[in-house]
């Protein structure tokens, strides 16, 4: 065991897979010599050579498109988008090719690539550096979307993503890259993609979140516990495909659902979670499911950042409102 | 590799004159007689298959189809200069290249007929990617494939096709740039057929040639007569040798002409002069090669007729096979989305199954009955 931050666990996962599978290549802007702007790939070029961990020109569509070719050609490309807000110019490649190749060739060709991207706000970054695009990727058939919230999950899920035979968008919550440490096994291990995790069990309310927002969700759950409310806290971990069984089972037990995420609310992950719970647990509901999300506004520049982010206090208050609901 | 021919000086490689005689510059690789005959058979098949597809569209038996007529020498000449296991990354107007690769015509017809099974080409049997419709997106795949071959220490190279219109798309710039920076064995073959639907080349780029753009990316470019099988073969042979032995990328611009419409849904009379089409028809790559073979007595007039009739019959047979192939099942539309079907898809499939029974797909509407059509 070693005690790692989330970003160190990402690096550890990359190193583990590069060590066991010579087909794994890691590349992107500044990932080689510099080790990435967040140091997620630090030391990999020294250890595995400049052919397997390398810098690319400033070329998001190029990175994604070349990754498609590499994957078809027998490599396991793990590409980095420096910030998720710059991945939009890669979407043509990811949507039109990576996501569709298996289906359009009826299984003749597969594209086992991973695109890693730091995402989300809260670090006082410049414009376009704080985006939460998970739902854009989750909406495209053929992609999987994974978001860890702990170092242990980051390592296990990234290894699973690399081993996955299909393209995986791996979004890394950069706000908590270094804010928590956890014991992480030194050997490689894979966690199942598509499985949520019940972080704490409870009876009164299911609180669902993921990524960096889990930090405030934890705070809210602890606060509510002190007030006598038993919260079941669920970390989605995979955005697509959603873990339908865990979500439905939890709400069947608690009867109340609050979904919290940083990205804009309309047509978002919370909407999808609530829809599936309504389909599968309607008769168990004690109150209308509630979402607490980022507004449908552009993420503000650093001076206004605190206006956008959702605090633990607000989550707890909205949860109390949900608990107070009487038909 | 193309040092004697610089597109920046207006030079273009041309070997086979329109009258069927050869005028090869010294030192260029020349197509041998058996290969020239093989190319001729492929070109006749491509021509017959193409004309039959357009005809089928008019009969309402084939959906939208992009004719290749007039451009066959590019794909066929290029593929004859490559190994059968080099990667082929096509756009969507490379019928000749596909046939030269050995992809059964039935598969191509099946794809354009509207069945994904047409793109089911087992990777290690064909090393061929499917048709790429998003214009200019696929050259990056060739760069990635060539990078994979490089780090696997293989001497397999990649060739990708695109039209001159694609060279205005950003992803093509990124593909050229990455190939130059990474040093990978990739050949970018641009079929400059003078028209991107209705936009002529001079409004596509202010560069006098497409080929000269290569130099800014750090590799060589050459313009060839794309209606000249020998010129295409010579340029691709030289580029392939450099790509294979030294991982040098190359850009080859085949200067050619789309004699047909952009697709069967297009009417080129709306934007181009029939006189221009007539002039280019005289440079028809098939007739030029035929004259060469007849002149050299590698072919007789009787054989010309026989080869054409055989190709005609093969095209009809291939389409009947495509037409007779079962349509995709509901399960087929779901089960190739992921290696393992996610629960959510299983649920959607189960819910849809009771409502799906085999039905005749809606009849295709022949183009001349379409409202607003001038055909």
Q: Main traits of this protein?
A:
heterodimer, A: 327 residues, alpha/beta, Rossmann fold, 2 domains, seven-stranded mixed β-sheet, five-stranded mixed β-sheet, 35% helix, globular, B: 375 residues, five-stranded parallel β-sheet, two-stranded antiparallel ribbon, 15 helices, 9% strand, disordered C terminus
Task: Give a short overview.
The complex is a heterodimer of chains A (327) and B (375). With 327 residues, chain A is α/β, with parallel strands linked by helices.
Derived structural class of chain B: alpha/beta
CATH classification class of the largest domain in chain A: Alpha Beta
How many individual helices of chain A? Answer: 12
Strand order of the largest sheet of chain B: 1-2-3-7-6
Provide the β-strand percentage band of chain B.
Answer: 5-15%
What count of structural domains of chain A?
A: 2
Which helices and strands appear, and what pairs or packs with what?
The complex is a heterodimer of chains A (327) and B (375).
Chain A: E1 2-5, H1 6-20, E2 24-28, H2 44-48, E3 53-55, H3 60-72, E4 76-80, H4 91-98, H5 101-104, E5 114-119, H6 134-138, E6 144-146, H7 151-163, E7 168-173, E8 181-184, E9 197-200, E10 205-209, H8 214-226, E11 231-235, E12 238-240, H9 244-254, E13 257-264, H10 269-281, E14 290-294, H11 305-308, H12 312-323
Chain B: H1 33-58, H2 72-80, E1 87-89, H3 95-101, H4 105-113, H5 123-126, H6 139-151, E2 158-163, H7 170-182, E3 186-192, E4 195-196, E5 199-200, H8 201-204, H9 213-216, E6 220-225, H10 229-246, E7 250-255, H11 274-281, H12 285-295, H13 301-324, H14 330-335, H15 343-352
Parallel strand pairs in B: 1-2, 2-3, 3-7, 6-7
Antiparallel strand pairs in B: 4-5
């Amino acid at each position: 065991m070693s005690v790692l931050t989330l970003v160190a666990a990402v690096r550890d996962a990359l190193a583990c897979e590069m060590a066991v599978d010579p087909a794994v290549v890691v590349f992107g802007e500044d990932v080689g010599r510099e080790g990435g702007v967040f140091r997620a790939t630090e030391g990999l070029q020294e250890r595995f050579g400049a052919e397997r961990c390398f810098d690319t020109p400033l070329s998001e569509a190029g990175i994604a498109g070349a990754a498609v070719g590499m994957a078809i050609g027998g490599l396991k490309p793990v590409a980095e988008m420096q910030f998720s807000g710059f991945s939009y110019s890669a979407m043509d490649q990811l949507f039109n090719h990576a996501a569709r190749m298996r289906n359009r060739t009826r299984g003749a060709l597969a594209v086992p690539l991973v695109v890693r991207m730091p995402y989300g706000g809260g670090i006082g970054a410049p414009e376009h550096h704080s985006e939460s695009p998970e739902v854009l990727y989750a909406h495209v058939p053929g992609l999987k979307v994974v978001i860890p919230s702990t170092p242990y999950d980051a390592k296990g899920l990234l290894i699973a993503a690399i081993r996955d035979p299909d393209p995986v968008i791996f979004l890394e919550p950069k706000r908590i890259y270094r804010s928590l440490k956890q014991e992480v096994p030194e050997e490689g291990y894979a966690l199942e993609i598509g499985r949520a995790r019940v972080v704490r069990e409870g009876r009164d309310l299911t609180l669902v979140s993921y990524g960096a927002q889990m930090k405030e969700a934890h705070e809210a759950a602890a606060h509510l516990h002190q007030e006598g409310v038993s919260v079941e806290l669920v970390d989605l971990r995979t955005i697509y495909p959603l873990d339908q069984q865990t979500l439905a089972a939890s709400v069947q037990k608690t009867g109340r659902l609050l979904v919290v995420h940083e990205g804009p609310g309309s047509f978002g992950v919370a909407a999808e979670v609530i829809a599936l719970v309504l389909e599968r647990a309607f008769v168990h509901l004690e109150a209308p499911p509630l979402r607490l999300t980022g507004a449908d506004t552009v993420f503000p520049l650093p001076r206004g950042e605190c206006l956008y982010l959702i605090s633990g206090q607000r989550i707890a208050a909205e949860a109390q409102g949900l608990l107070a609901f009487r038909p | 590799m193309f040092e004697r021919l610089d597109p920046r000086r207006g030079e273009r490689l041309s070997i086979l004159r329109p009258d069927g005689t050869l005028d090869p510059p010294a030192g260029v690789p020349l197509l041998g007689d058996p290969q020239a005959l093989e190319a001729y058979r492929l070109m006749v098949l491509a021509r017959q298959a193409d004309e039959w597809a357009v005809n089928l569209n008019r009969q309402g038996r084939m959906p939208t189809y992009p004719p290749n007529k007039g451009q066959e020498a590019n794909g066929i000449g290029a593929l004859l200069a490559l190994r059968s296991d080099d990667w082929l990354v096509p756009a969507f107007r490379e019928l000749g290249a596909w046939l030269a690769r050995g992809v059964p015509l039935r598969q191509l017809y099946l794809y354009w007929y509207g069945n994904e099974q047409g793109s089911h080409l087992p990777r290690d049997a064909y090393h061929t990617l499917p048709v790429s419709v998003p214009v200019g997106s696929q050259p990056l795949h060739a760069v990635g494939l060539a990078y994979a071959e490089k780090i696997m220490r293989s001497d397999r190279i990649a060739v990708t096709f695109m039209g001159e219109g694609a060279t205005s798309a950003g992803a093509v710039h990124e593909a050229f740039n990455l190939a130059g920076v990474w040093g990978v064995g990739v050949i970018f073959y641009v079929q400059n057929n003078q028209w991107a639907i209705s936009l002529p080349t001079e409004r596509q780029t202010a560069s006098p040639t497409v080929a000269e753009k290569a130099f800014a990316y750090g590799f060589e470019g050459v313009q060839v007569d794309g209606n000249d099988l020998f010129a295409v073969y010579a340029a691709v042979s030289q580029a392939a040798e450099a790509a294979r032995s030294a991982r040098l990328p190359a850009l080859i611009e085949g200067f050619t002409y789309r004699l047909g419409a952009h697709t069967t849904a297009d009417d080129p009379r709306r934007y181009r002069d029939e006189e221009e089409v007539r002039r280019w028809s005289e440079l028809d790559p098939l007739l030029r090669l035929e004259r060469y073979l007849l002149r050299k007595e590698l072919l007789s007039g009787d054989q010309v007729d026989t080869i054409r009739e055989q190709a005609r019959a093969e095209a009809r047979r291939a389409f009947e096979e495509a037409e007779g192939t079962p349509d995709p099942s509901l399960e087929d539309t779901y089960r190739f989305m992921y290696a393992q079907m996610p629960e959510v898809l299983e649920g959607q499939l189960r819910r849809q199954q009771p409502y799906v029974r085999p039905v005749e797909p809606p009849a295709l509407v022949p183009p001349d009955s379409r409202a607003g059509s001038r055909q």
